[in-house]
Amino acid sequence: MDILKRIVSGKLSLAVMFWGYYFGFIIIATACMGITYGFGFNKPMLYCIFLVTTIIELLMIIAVTIGISRILKYQGVTFWGLAALIVCVLHSMGIIICFLDGSYSYNGFLDKHL
Predict the structure, then answer these.
(1) Percent of the chain whose pLDDT exceeds 90
(2) Distance CA 2, CA 29 (A)
(3) Rounded-to-integer distance, Cα 88 and Cα 105, Å
(4) Alpha-carbon Rg of the chain, whole angstroms?
(5) Residue 11: which of 75, 82, 87 has the closest Cα?
């Protein structure tokens, strides 16, 4: 939990926060989903794994967004900090919109991924 506090409080550098935790977590989540497809789980189990992974990814992106905004607040606004914040906000908004419009519903999941 200490690392999550450091992410949210903005005590890590912008490079570590964005490249390490934002992109690193996206790569890990994508790899986990790819590995679970290969195991041959049934469709409801794959959907549960997909939802849990997506929700954890959204929570991590929100934590990184809060951390980046605090870095910008306390260390000053820079081009790269603003660009990282925009990328994180757009990604989190995309996930939230997919939840709201039904793209991540069970039927949508089966149509798109299986």
Answers:
(1) 38
(2) 21
(3) 23
(4) 16
(5) 75
